[in-house]
Amino acid sequence: MNAIAAIITVIVAIILFTSIAYVKAPPNRAAIITGLLKEPRILRGKAGFKIPFFERVDWLEVGQMDISVETEEFIPTSDFINIQVDAIAQVSIDVENGMDIAMRNFLNKNMDEIKTSIAKTLQGNLREIIGTMELKNICQNKAEFSKQVKENAEEDIANLGISIISFNVQNIKDKENLISDLGIDNREKIRKSASIAKADSLKEVSINQAKADNESNTAEIESQTEIAKRENELAIKRAELKTEEDKAKARADATYDIESQRVRKDLEKATQEAEIAKREKEIELQAKEAEVTEKKLDAEIKKKADADRYAEEMKAEAELFKRKKEAEADLFEKEKEAEAIKKKGEAEADAIRMKGIAEAEAMDKKAEAMKKYGEAAILEMLIGVLPDIAKAVAEPISSISDVKIIGSGSQGVSDISGNVPIVMAQVMETVKEATGVDLKDVIHANTYDAKVNRKVEITGSVPIKEQLVGTADPEENVDSE
């Protein structure tokens, strides 16, 4: 950024310096540079530089100037006739010899100021020359008059640093209209000479007109005769030409017919050949088009097949990648699931093992309790199960809502209630048949007869209540003798 700022600063400085120091002068103006040097530097039609604050530039108009010079009042000539003259002068700065003088006189002045100064000088010289010449000489020889004025004014104008390019008198006026009177004699002489010349001219014209008429008539007759001859010759010639023309026309017609037939045949032949060539070209073009179409179709099919194959390959790779990732994910899930199942199985196995251990310990403790408290337990179980058996036997009787007794040999309801002990006995018998356990023996197991005479012993750790109601394991049996 610092470098860019420095460059911009340098460019701005150069632009400012150029705008202040650069000086360009056109061809019609001179730039005068003064200041440091003793002699000024002059630029005209070129460019240069000045040193700011130490040199200055002044301007001088050096182009051609057209100055109107007119005497402001009537000036007497050498023959004392008052006249007024206006002229036009073309002047410019004398760049070669009078530049220093012009700079002193006209530097920084505009064109109008310069013209005014020069016009005053020329007016004085014009008055001087008017006073040295007669009116007649001035009027008859304006060029000499203009020359004298220019030569007389050159020295004075040179003292201003100006050179006269040309000086021309435009108009001369006198106060008494004497200039007009000077031309009367000449006008009358000219008018007289013109009248005589006109009469002589008319006479000569008449004579010449008569001669011309005569000669014209003769010439006309000769001309008419010649015209008649020419017309006859022309008619004959036309007839001959007409005959030749008819012959030529007949020959041309015949030749035209023959040539037309030949051209027609050639044209038909060329047309047929062109048609054949056209058909051949059309067939060739169709073959080319078919070939191009076939190649295009082959290219399109091949391109499509390549694209489809590439798409299928990409799709197969994508499917393979997808299946691979799915298989990896599935394998990962299965490994995790197997690990979870394994842990779960191990936990369940541990739970079952611990449960089995606990149940076994419970059974052992229960067996020890039964063994320790065998008689009391048996009695307790028997006492506990008998109400259930009695309830089960009496339950059908309790559901009887209405009893009708037919026959005189029955004792009525007492017969039904008396069936309960019978049913109980039948139940005990059924238990004995089904399980081999005789409840009556169990009841009498503690009697003297059972222990001494029959030696009955009850073994097993399963409560009789559970066996009777069907909740015990079938593999557990009660052994009795």
Please describe what this structure looks like.
Helix 3 (111-130) crosses helix 5 (142-158) and helix 8 crosses helix 10 (419-435). The protein is built from 13 helices and nine strands. Strands 6, 7, 8 and 9 form a four-stranded antiparallel β-sheet that branches. It has 481 residues and is an alpha+beta fold.
How would you summarize the topology of this molecule?
Elements: H1 2-21, E1 22-24, E2 29-34, E3 41-44, E4 47-49, E5 56-61, E6 65-70, E7 75-76, E8 82-93, H2 99-106, H3 111-130, H4 135-140, H5 142-158, E9 162-174, H6 178-181, H7 184-372, H8 374-398, H9 413-417, H10 419-435, H11 439-443, H12 448-454, H13 464-469
Antiparallel strand pairs: 1-4, 2-3, 2-5, 6-8, 7-8, 8-9
Mean pLDDT: 76
- The oligomeric state of the chains shown is single chain
User: Could you tell me the strand content as a percent range?
Assistant: 5-15%
Reported for the largest beta sheet, the result is: 4 strands, antiparallel
- The total strand number stands at 9
Helix share bin: 55-70%
Shape: elongated
